From TrEMBL, chain A:
<protein>
    <submittedName>
        <fullName>Uncharacterized protein</fullName>
    </submittedName>
</protein>
<keyword id="KW-0472">Membrane</keyword>
<keyword id="KW-1133">Transmembrane helix</keyword>
<feature type="transmembrane region" description="Helical">
    <location>
        <begin position="21"/>
        <end position="40"/>
    </location>
</feature>
<keyword id="KW-0812">Transmembrane</keyword>
<feature type="transmembrane region" description="Helical">
    <location>
        <begin position="46"/>
        <end position="67"/>
    </location>
</feature>
TrEMBL record, chain B:
<feature type="transmembrane region" description="Helical">
    <location>
        <begin position="326"/>
        <end position="359"/>
    </location>
</feature>
<keyword id="KW-0175">Coiled coil</keyword>
<keyword id="KW-0597">Phosphoprotein</keyword>
<dbReference type="GO" id="GO:0000155">
    <property type="term" value="F:phosphorelay sensor kinase activity"/>
</dbReference>
<keyword id="KW-0902">Two-component regulatory system</keyword>
<feature type="transmembrane region" description="Helical">
    <location>
        <begin position="6"/>
        <end position="28"/>
    </location>
</feature>
<feature type="transmembrane region" description="Helical">
    <location>
        <begin position="40"/>
        <end position="63"/>
    </location>
</feature>
<protein>
    <recommendedName>
        <fullName>histidine kinase</fullName>
        <ecNumber>2.7.13.3</ecNumber>
    </recommendedName>
</protein>
<dbReference type="InterPro" id="IPR001734">
    <property type="entry name" value="Na/solute_symporter"/>
</dbReference>
Length: 97, 882
């Protein structure tokens, strides 16, 4: 641990932050889907609710698509840069920022 | 549409599925797995989530409860949104441990405990049986829709369900139990399911488009109709209830992870976690497409079809009522696909669990044999156990369908199954994320959840007891889900906190939570005579060829010939995990322990293993360092090699030079001695020629002296006579001695006399030699019109003096400055120099011996040399000192 660099190179840094985004996204999605129904059940039960739900759903799919593309590229970039193997770092905590 | 045509179409479709599965299996056998492994196939196979319950039932659900139906799809969408960090990890860990089912995963995590796996299998079977019955029901119902339509419709009744069940069991047995590979993958089944997913989606989209643009006037009209439902008393159920909304999303999110069929296609059949890069967005997109037209179909169906029609069958009755027979057939095939794919994958997944966690352990327990006796073929038993289990699972579904009879009792079974398997989620997620989770906690949590689910959800759904509602206005299902899951989690966490897991479990926990390769550790004596029983055991499971291949490969990997590898922890771990891929982690662990005679793991063993892990980590770090070290060494070696090559070239050149230098005086000596032999020479001539011979011999001697001097200096055996001397005197002597060189030239000498009076401790003769050489060189080569020589001495604090000698000539080219200290590096033509070109080379060696340095000073407006002296010559060299 001691000989690990404190700061990551740009590619690794970008990938880590995108990984953070991938973690936050499901939480945000769950909140975005659940909260409106607690808040205004009647307004979200019919036509407007259907439009809002399916609209959000489509945007979410698009967001995941874009995020995954970015993550794949970032992983490839880190691999090229000779950084740590992207598989391990995702789960073994963040030693460097 | 004639009923016969429907049956014919259906049979053709079934034949197509068999054909596709067969072709895919063949292709996989030949190693053509590239397109079978395509992420699209994987994503489509995930659509086994959409069973007939969602295919037909979603519209009925939407008719009754409006948008609430979408919760069943939104839950998985949210889970897949987190595919990158969540599901990838699940798949990676599961692949690492060759996990065969969700029960196997959890039992492997909690110390390879088979009772835990058996309990989870029980929950899965109880939850799945009515669910499978629901699929059979949907197929027979959809047949009935067509049969009652045609006037000559045959009597079908319960026969359809039986035929369908038999066909599905056959398909599952044919393509689900062909082999007993370490990685439980079924290419045929998966490919057929991917195709069915396409049919499902096409059918749904086709009907949806027909409804929105054919029966209604486009999306705006549909939205208007949905909004109009707001005021209708019949649509009271459409008002979303936040509690149901939230709990159903949670339950469906849990179900997509824990349902045996989902685990099968998502984790067990996955080649690696890369598939999830695509599935992460593609599967939510599939769900989106499958649910987009649900509400429109429900709304339009309610308006077009006569009151009292079953909304669960709008999918079929709507196109039929509109005269769209082909569309109805397509929808029928879509529903058929949904039902069959669900039953096939569920049957395979459940059969694996039943055979691995119920039948095989039981068999091994009953047929315990003393060691040494020829063991029976376990492989055949396991495959037959799976076949039997498939038959039982599908048969139980059929029996349940026949017994329940009614249509209404089954409608809720989808959610019942979801909530049942959701009870497994806390143990699964907790086991993957929390090292402190332990087996007792898992028992407590899953057990609590299971009992509550049975009492509050399952039994009421089959008509035993009633569901509880704590107070008016609280939805009973939400309450039951909330209560069962909360107490489940609470029990799991609380018992885990107070429990203390055994070493195997702690090892597994480490491996699962940190996603590191598991390490097996068993103390074993006499390793050689234990390898063979292991081979025999592996043969029982994999068959002779596969077992021998594996053992040979492992032995070869250890650098041994033959078939019996050493029982290293690494080998045992690998063997156990491969066996776990066929028979489950718990059974594999038990079998290896029994055969290999591994003793029970103790905490001290665990510490040892932890040490090993630490050592492995250190080893890895050390290797990394060693690699950089190696690179550095390689670079140094390369440099050394270059230098050696250059030196070899230089040596050749040196020899050539020497020969040349020796030959020139030798030639004149020979020539003149030849002349001397002739007698008719005057004394005058004779003297002159003898003088030339003498001079040339002198030159030869000087050259040889120089060479000898150099070689002595280079070898480091120089004897120094160290004494104190005044630097001024030395320079004085050097100048007068050097004035013999080209005495015709007069130099202006620029000196700083006071600074020269400096005592030095060195070998004065050697230093003088250097000074003479440098000054002589200046006299020889300075090409200035009015040559001048500057000598500066600098006193250095704590060190010997530094002497700069420079002239005002043209100096030496930058490119050649590095060469001047090499032997025979005469820069100008030899004739002019009249020396052998060894002078500066000797100077450099002398200075090295004196512990100082001579270097060329560039940029001084002429040739300039700097001689630095140490305060004292190095002791090691001054052997001949004062």
């Amino acid at each position: 641990m001691s000989d690990r660099p404190l700061f990551l190179e740009r590619a690794s840094f970008r990938r880590r932050r995108l990984g953070d985004a991938a973690r936050v996204l499901p939480v945000l999605a769950a909140l975005a889907v659940m909260l409106p129904v607690w808040w205004l059940p009647a307004a979200f039960s019919f036509g407007a609710g259907a439009i809002a739900l399916f609209g959000f759903w489509a945007v979410l799919i698009l967001a995941v698509w874009v995020l995954h593309r970015a993550l794949i590229r970032a992983e490839a970039a880190t691999m090229r840069a000779g950084g740590e193997s992207p598989g391990d770092s995702d789960w073994t905590g963040h030693d460097a920022l | 549409m004639p009923f016969e045509m429907l049956v014919a179409g259906c049979l053709a479709y079934v034949a197509l599925m068999f054909g596709v599965a067969f072709a895919a299996d063949r292709a996989a056998q030949r190693g053509h797995v590239r397109w079978l492994d395509h992420p699209a196939v994987y994503t489509l196979s995930l659509s086994v989530y959409c069973s007939a319950w969602t295919f037909y039932g979603a519209v009925g659900y939407a008719s009754r409860s409006g948008l609430e139906f979408a919760t069943i799809y939104i839950g998985p969408t949210i889970v897949f949104t987190g595919a990158w960090w969540g599901l990838r990890r699940l798949v990676r860990v599961a692949r690492m441990h060759h996990v065969t089912s969700v029960a196997d995963l959890i039992s492997a995590r909690f110390g390879k405990s088979n009772p835990l796996a058996a309990m989870l299998t029980l929950i899965a079977v109880i939850a799945a049986t009515p669910y499978i019955a629901l699929q059979l029901q949907s197929v027979s119902l959809s047949f009935e829709v067509f049969a009652t339509q045609s006037p000559d419709g045959p009597e079908i009744g319960g026969g359809t369900a039986l035929w369908v069940a038999a066909g599905l069991a056959l398909f599952s047995i044919l393509f689900g139990t062909r082999n007993l590979d370490a990685d439980e993958r079924h290419h045929g089944v998966v490919t057929a399911i991917a195709l069915e997913a396409v049919v499902k989606l096409l059918a749904f989209l086709a009907l949806g488009i027909f409804v929105v643009w054919g029966l209604a006037d486009g999306p705006a009209d549909i939205i208007g109709r949905i909004s109009a439902a707001a005021g209708e008393p019949a649509r009271e159920g459409w008002l979303l209830r936040p509690d149901r909304w939230t709990t159903l999303i949670i339950v469906s999110a849990a179900a997509v992870l824990t349902l045996p069929r989902m685990f099968q296609v998502m984790v067990v059949e996955a080649a690696d976690e890369e598939r999830l890069h695509v599935a992460g967005w593609a599967f939510p997109a599939y769900l989106f497409a499958m649910s987009l037209f649900v509400l429109p179909i429900a709304v339009v169906g309610a308006e077009v079809l006569p009151a009292g029609s079953n909304p669960d069958l709008y999918m079929l009755t709507l196109p039929q009522a509109s005269g769209q027979n082909l569309l109805a057939l397509l929808v029928f095939l879509g529903g058929f696909s949904a039902a069959t794919s669900m039953v096939v994958v569920s049957a395979i997944a459940l059969a694996t669990m039943i055979s691995n966690h119920w039948l095989t352990p039981l068999w091994l327990f009953l047929r315990r044999r003393p060691a040494g006796e020829t063991p029976e073929d376990l492989r055949g038993f396991i495959l037959n156990a799976r076949r039997l289990a498939i038959l039982s699972v599908v048969g139980a579904g059929w029996v349940y369908h026949q017994a329940s009879g009614g249509t209404t009792a089954l409608a809720a079974m989808g959610l019942v199954a979801f909530t049942g398997m959701a009870q497994v989620l806390p143990a699964m997620v907790g086991g993957l994320l929390w090292r402190g989770a332990n087996r007792m906690g898992a028992y407590a949590g899953v057990g609590t959840g299971f009992v509550l689910w049975l009492a509050m959800i399952f039994l009421p759904s089959v008509g035993i007891g009633t569901s509880l509602a704590p107070a008016a206005g609280v939805d009973p299902l939400s309450f039951a889900i909330f209560l069962s899951l909360s107490l489940n989690i609470l029990a799991f966490v609380a018992v885990s906190i107070f429990g203390f897991p055994d070493p195997v479990e702690r090892l597994q926990g480490l491996s699962f939570v940190s996603t590191v390769q598991p390490i097996r550790h068993s103390r074993m004596a006499r390793t050689e005579d234990r390898a063979e029983p292991l081979l025999v055991m592996a043969r029982r499971v994999w068959g002779a060829d596969a077992a021998l291949r594996y053992f040979q490969a492992q032995a070869a990997a250890q650098g041994k010939s033959g078939y019996l590898p050493d029982l290293t922890p690494g080998f045992l771990t690998g063997l156990e995990r491969r066996l776990a891929g066929s028979i489950g982690a718990a059974t594999a662990h038990a079998m290896i322990d029994r055969v290999a005679g591994g003793m029970t793991l103790t905490v001290s063993d665990l510490m040892e293993v932890a040490d090993e892990a630490q050592r492995a980590k250190e080893e890895a770090q050390r290797l990394e360092t060693a690699t950089t070290e190696l690179e550095r060494t390689a670079r140094q070696l390369r440099e050394a090699n270059d230098k050696l090559t250059a030196l070899s070239v230089q040596k050749d050149a040196f020899l050539g030079q020497i020969s040349h230098e020796l030959r020139t005086p030798m030639t004149s000596v020979r020539a003149f001695s030849e002349i001397l032999k002739t007698s008719d020479l005057s004394d005058e001539e004779r003297r002159r020629f003898a003088g030339i011979i003498h001079d040339e011999a002198g030159r030869l001697t000087r050259l040889l002296d120089d060479l000898l001097d150099l070689s002595v200096l280079e070898s480091g055996n120089t004897q120094l006579t160290v004494s104190a001397a005044n630097l001024h005197d030395l320079i004085e002597r050097a100048l007068s001695a050097a004035s013999a060189t080209r005495p015709e030239r007069s130099f202006t000498i620029d000196r700083d006399l006071p600074s020269e009076h400096l005592g030095v401790i060195t070998d004065p003769d050697r230093l003088l030699q250097v000074l003479i050489n440098v000054i002589g060189n200046a006299r020889k080569y300075c090409d200035a019109e009015r040559p001048a020589l500057t000598i500066r001495v600098l006193r250095r604090e704590g060190n010997g003096p530094q002497i700069d000698i420079s002239d005002n000539g043209a100096g030496i080219d930058t490119s050649r400055q590095s060469l001047i200290f090499e032997k025979f590096a005469r820069l100008n033509e030899p004739a002019r120099a009249g020396g052998a070109g060894l002078g500066l080379a000797i100077c450099r060696e002398i200075m090295a011996v004196l512990g100082g340095e001579i270097s060329y000073l560039p940029g001084q407006g002429g040739a300039a040399f700097r001689i630095t002296l140490p305060r004292k010559p190095p002791l090691g060299v001054a052997r001949g000192g004062v």
